[in-house]
């Protein structure tokens, strides 16, 4: 069920994976999956076990969760802040946050985006593993960490991101209004089993989100959409930035109800999801996404 790692040096082949990631990126949005028989046939023809070639790897996210001891949150963040320049020089940090509400507290979440896929991640990890300063930070900060978790996600096809006016992982955090109130909303959907579960869901989402983004607070934006590759499969995550904080989030939700296409999309998405979680996090001072 897990895709093969993609290489930027040579075309890669994906056979029988849950989404055929490279193939999805080559298809127009209407061919991802829809509720019409013609497009369902198109999807079936493209996910029937054939292999697809891709000259470039799909961008991936690594989402790391560090469960901290309550007494260790402040010292851990202080150490991470002090070494933040080193972290950014070694790995492509996007979002570094602490939870506000919606789940477990005292979790430092690190989100990294590797445009070159698993190959780039492996290369950068080798470099960081050879840094004496980085190894010292890891050793010194470990006393504050109770447990760790790492998950790999693939960025949604460009058509999905474009529908939501999202810059995706390539976004460097620029061109937004800085605010101490900013929060990020992490929306997780656990879908049922099946090769077509994620593409069907993403197609419904992309058809509806293009109307949602026209009816929301001006400081609300879709940061990215991703789906799981390693760990719990068939999980889709939306990450929304609310520049006006939880008040802006509430305003955006209220405004989005005025878009009937988005309401219809939500109803359809609800039938495809077995579980839904919503967490609000706050970026720390050195987070690339702020």
TrEMBL record:
Gene3D superfamilies: 3.30.70.100. The lineage of its organism: Eukaryota, Sar, Stramenopiles, Ochrophyta, Bolidophyceae. Residues 61-159, 184-287 form the NIPSNAP domain. GO terms for biological process: mitophagy. Pfam families: NIPSNAP. Belongs to the NipSnap family. One of its GO terms (cellular component) is mitochondrion. InterPro entries: Dimeric_a/b-barrel, NIPSNAP, NipSnap_domain. This is NIPSNAP domain-containing protein.
């Amino acid at each position: 069920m897990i895709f093969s790692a993609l290489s930027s040096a040579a075309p890669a082949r994906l056979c029988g994976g849950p989404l055929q990631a490279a193939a999805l990126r080559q298809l127009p949005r209407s061919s991802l999956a829809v509720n019409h028989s013609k497009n369902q046939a198109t999807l079936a023809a493209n996910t029937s076990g054939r292999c697809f070639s891709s000259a470039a790897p799909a961008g991936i996210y690594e989402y790391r969760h560090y469960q901290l001891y309550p007494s260790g949150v402040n010292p851990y963040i202080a150490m991470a802040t002090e070494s933040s320049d080193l972290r950014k020089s070694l790995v492509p940090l996007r979002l570094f946050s602490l939870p506000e509400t919606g789940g477990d507290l005292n979790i430092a979440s690190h989100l990294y985006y590797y445009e070159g896929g698993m190959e780039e991640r492996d290369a950068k990890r080798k470099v960081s593993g050879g840094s004496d300063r980085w190894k010292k930070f890891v050793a010194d900060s470990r006393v504050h960490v109770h447990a760790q978790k790492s998950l790999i996600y693939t960025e949604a096809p460009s058509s999905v991101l474009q529908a939501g006016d999202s810059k995706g992982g390539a976004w460097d955090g620029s061109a937004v209004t800085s605010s101490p109130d900013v929060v990020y909303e992490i929306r997780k959907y656990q879908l049922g089993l099946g090769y077509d579960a994620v593409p069907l869901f993403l197609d419904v989402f992309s058809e509806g989100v293009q109307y949602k983004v026209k009816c929301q607070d001006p400081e609300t934006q879709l940061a990215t959409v991703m789906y799981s590759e390693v760990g719990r499969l068939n999980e889709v995550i939306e990450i929304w930035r609310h520049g006006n904080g939880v008040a802006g989030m509430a305003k955006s939700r209220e405004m989005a109800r005025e878009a009937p296409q988005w309401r219809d999309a939500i109803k359809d998405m609800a039938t495809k999801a077995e579980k839904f979680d919503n967490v609000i996090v706050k970026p720390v001072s050195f987070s690339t996404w702020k």
